[in-house]
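Let us practice reading a record.
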Amino acid sequence: MAHIHYLHGDSFGNAEKPAVMDMATTRDTFETACDFRIHNKPVNKMWEWTAVPSVPVNARAMLPSSSSVTIELAHGVKMITFVNTVPITATRAINRFCLIRNFAINPAFDFMARDNMLKILGEDKVMVDKLAPHRLEQEYSLAPDAP
């Protein structure tokens, strides 16, 4: 979760306040989930009415290859992102995504949601493209957000 403020600083993270607060995790056989709060980047005038002191986030990873991230802003403004990754070869996969929102629901606003989602996925792609899993002799499990 710590990458939010650095990798997504231009879209929704806040490098000036890079805290991940009040994280609580749960897991069972089929999923792992965490709830936490982040400081959003300063909002522009158009979004001022949705400003909150910190943004509650729920992130879930579900077997076999799906995830969701839910954020809620002031006045009940909510966005849920679903991503499903389907391997098609040993080195390639297809990502299917859906951004659900409960505001600006007229189809005329769809391009804005789509553009923002593609921007966020593009920010993730920069990091993923730099990974070199073939250089690891074995798989490692790390706790990068631990104190």
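A brief commentary: The first helix runs from residue 3 to 7.
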